[in-house]
């Protein structure tokens, strides 16, 4: 096969990135390993313990339980599954803001729980009054997002934890994207800040690990027990993961990236990405577009559909929010030069649009 994957030089919409060189190298070395079978693949299984210990350190959890999942989707599904299995009612509900990732829709569908979706406030954060009004004695889980997919916003996690506790529900934080930048901000988002029970935090996003490397963290091992099934033909006794065979490459690359980058490398990357986001927001604002403040390295701006389409036609991999705004994620592969070139293309399109069309007649 001669085909090469896409280059990253015009990718502005992805929440994944080029793996760090040490992560790439580790992934290649561990390509043929399966942490789903620890009796046969003990080395990668021990590496997974290291990955969880490192993720715990990042997320303010001293004695973490968890595993390296296929991504944020699996981690979110499993968190809903833990809460559903813990719930004492047969008709549990899950309360989350409308900004939460669509993986929770999948979770609700697969697990048969009622999803109660509440609005966000003018800052695109979970509206606490709406959350309070939606929870009841059958609420199994309250979800907060720490780094939303569309606007990069952080929900008021301590308050959501308190609301969850007030009805004996669990609290899950989706930091799948934000978890590797939030440690360098003032936001309260993790286990040390709030009554959080479970978290999605993905090395294969801002953590610069190879795909697939998602992370599920739980405050205590007994929460993972809610997921465990017996594994008769394996030398281990039970399995809490959703998939059976799993990617050892993902596990190894997550450990390699975190050992290399936590904390200083990630801090430097956060500063670079955040500066880039602010530069882009400023450049768009100066051109008259309405921009949602980049509280984390993600910019959303009200760019007309025709301009968006023209930029995509020029090869820019950009995407739109549910309400149609241009969305640019300043991932580690996104450089200032790329953004300057993007703005250059935008300016050329606008000049063309403002030149009157000459007609022959
Ligand atoms: C906040 C958030 N949660 C979950 C996910 C799903 O992650 P994955 O695509 O790795 O399953 C995403 C994906 O972008 C996300 O932004």
From TrEMBL:
Name listed for the protein in its UniProt record: Probable L-aspartate decarboxylase
InterPro entries (alphabetical): GrpII_AminoAcid_Decarb (IPR050477), MfnA (IPR020931), PyrdxlP-dep_de-COase (IPR002129), PyrdxlP-dep_Trfase (IPR015424), PyrdxlP-dep_Trfase_major (IPR015421), PyrdxlP-dep_Trfase_small (IPR015422)
Function (record text): Catalyzes the decarboxylation of L-aspartate to produce beta-alanine.
GO BP: carboxylic acid metabolic process; coenzyme A biosynthetic process
Source organism (scientific name): Natronolimnohabitans innermongolicus JCM 12255
Encoding gene, per UniProt annotation: mfnA
Enzyme Commission number(s): 4.1.1.11
Keyword Magnesium: no
Enzyme superclass (EC): lyase
Reactions performed catalytically: L-aspartate + H(+) = beta-alanine + CO2
Pfam family name, one: Pyridoxal_deC
Record NCBIfam families: tyr_de_CO2_Arch
Keyword annotations of the record: Decarboxylase, Lyase, Pyridoxal phosphate
PTM-bearing positions, type N6-(pyridoxal phosphate)lysine: 205
Keyword match Zinc: no
Family assignment from sequence similarity: Belongs to the group II decarboxylase family. Sphingosine-1-phosphate lyase subfamily.
